[in-house]
Here is the input.
Amino acid sequence: MLPRVSICTVTHNAVADLPDYFAALLSLTHRPIDVIIADCASTDASVEVAREFSGGPLSVHVLALGENRGFAGGMNAAIAASDAPFVLSLNADARPEPAFLTHLMARMDEPGWRVGAATGRLLRPLRSDGTRLLDACGMRLVPTWRHLDRASGKLEGGQFARAERVFGGTGAATLLRREALLDTAVDGDVFDPEFFTFREDAELCFRLRERGWEVIYEPLARCEHRRFNVPERRSTMPAWANMHSLKNRYLLRAYHQTPRNFALTFLPTLWRDSLALGAVIFRERSSLPAYRWLWTNRRRIRARRAAIQARRTIAARELDPWFFRSGAPL
Here is the structure.
């Protein structure tokens, strides 16, 4: 029998997505699977609709959390409710193709590598002219300390057609090895609850790499993702979401930037930080609480950084090249 995979999904007012989400899961060729829905205080019928699928061919467990814990807190609850050796982090607006899991599982035993995660080729919905935009082909880092989904928003044209090592994978659809999650958890948390939402997947990828786990991109693993939260839509995003996005930009660096990396990326990050501060002061004052939060919680941040850095097994010089490359060959 093949290893069991728990498909873990966080919902918040996602009722419109659930029928197509479950239809996609029913078509997956990999078995056995089970589904764990962690609902973060939806005010629509997300919980009721998800529970309707629990009596069908899929094993579905719905956690009605009663409060909005964000993606990080909701995913932690879902992962804790499972004991499967593999976890697929999957958004409710994602539609994996039937062989998606099969292709990712094949990469988890890649010879010569200690694979902690595998991610696939995410595409946005088909457009009226029959073309598609890519959504993510793995995650990369750049010297400004941004983490980007490779090829996001680009017209699909055969790019990134080979399997390769990447820095990380998006939380929208990435397969994770439970052993790696337990190895990198801090105080029992796989995802840091302080992130709430945005950048929590990148923070986990840092911890995976700092403990020597590899992430592989497999282009044959295809999944449609109807992404809404993209940088060009920032002006239409809720104020609380933009505040968390800004806060988490600095929180990520507070946990993981090393003195060597600070020197390597000082000028690019200073330039981007200056632009961000100017934008907040003159256009997005609702995000100013992010700076206050970081100052108020500085002791807690330092304590968590110390815990993370004390457990790293990979030297800084081995992670720094990821800030200057898109991927690496297998």
In short: The chain has a mean pLDDT of 94. The longest strand covers residues 214-225.
